[in-house]
Amino acid sequence: MAAAASRGAVRPTPSWGGAAPTAPATRTPPPWRWLLLLLLLLLLRLSCPSTATPPPDSFSQLAAPQYPKIHLYNEEQVLSWEWSSANNDTRPVVYRVQYKYITSEHWHDVTVNSVGVNCTRIPETQCNFTNARFLRCSSVSLHVRAELGEIVSAWTTGLWFQYYQNVTIGPPKDMLVTPEAASLLIRLSSPFELPRKCGIVFVYYIHYWEEAGVQQQVKGPMTCSTILLDNLKPLKVYCLQAEARLSLQTSRPGRLSNISCYETMAKASSKVQQVALISVATFLVLLALSAHFLFRYKSQVKYWFHTPPRIPSQIEEYLKDPVLPILEALDKDSSPEDTWDSVSVISFPAKEDVLQTLESER
Fold it and tell me: Among 16, 135, 152, 242, which residue has the fewest nearby CB atoms (within 10 Å)?
């Protein structure tokens, strides 16, 4: 306890004959340090902004177009989308479409100067770029946004497409069919014109079947637009449908043409047989008709074909020698016993004479 008391006792301050020592005073930092601290806090505030965002304002923001899609059919090329205004905003909105190639990093407006069509500040929710001068052999991306004065929406996600890989091919424009001997000759015209620089051509398929049957056959692919369907049955009706595809997408079917039916012609040997049979049949029919006519009208036929009366010898001699007096020759040949009949001519008075006679008698 003595030790504890000694630890708890306060030591007396020694005195060396001078004043007692005092505690050291606190130093005040200079003003420039306060300025440096404030500047550092300001920089930290600017570099780390608050994550809280104010509520959206429909008059300062626009909804982005939604559900964009591309329609490619033959030469038709159309980009369409949907757009709905937030908070029932009814202000007029226009749209801007941009494009870029897969080899480029920059987007460009779809304008008349750039590609030949205008799709900037358009009120419709579609852009028809059928006549646009896009490089059809390259991949192209399109995106669209809404605009209202200085206020713009976000861009939609770009849609990539390669025309010749994604286009849907329609049926051939025209199909001319010429029936031949046990075959059909078909001439087709392409759905549309293709540029030569891409090295792409149309290939054709013919779907055909006999009208009386159900089994369908396909001939193709063929790059020639003139197609001969041979080894068909003669004098049979066949129905056809034509299809066109691109050489780059032979596995992608095209649209089929309307169904049309044609009858094949007979073979050459069959034609000769038909001509012979027709000739024999015609001859037999005429022979039967002639026999029937002769049997029914034999008396009239006999009369028509009897021997004509013979000309007297004197007339024949006169015809041979006209100088010979025919009357003298006839007198010489006539016998004295020939008798002549007398002829009396009876005439009736005219009607006027009879009337005059009756009047005179009165």
Answer: 16
218-256 tens-digit pLDDT: 999 999 999 999 999 999 999 999 999 998 877 778 999
Picking from 6-10, 84-88, 229-233, which range would have the lowest pLDDT averaged per residue?
6-10
- Are the C-beta atoms of residues 186 and 206 closer than 8 Å to each other? yes
pTM: 0.56
Please name the residues in contact with 32: beta carbons below 8 A apart, sequence gap of 6 or more: none
- Helix axes 326-333 and 313-320, enclosed angle (nearest 10): 150
The residue among 178, 187, 174, 175 whose CA lies nearest residue 263 is: 178
**In this predicted model, what pLDDT tens digit does every residue of 61-76 receive, in sequence order?**
788 999 999 999 999 9
Nearest to 349 by CA among 340, 341, 357: 357
Residues 6+ apart with CB under 8 A from 132: 77, 110, 115, 116, 117
E strands within the chain?
66-73, 76-82, 94-101, 108-109, 120-122, 126-128, 139-148, 151-152, 159-162, 175-180, 183-188, 202-210, 217-222, 226-229, 237-246, 260-263
Chain mean position to CA 139: 25
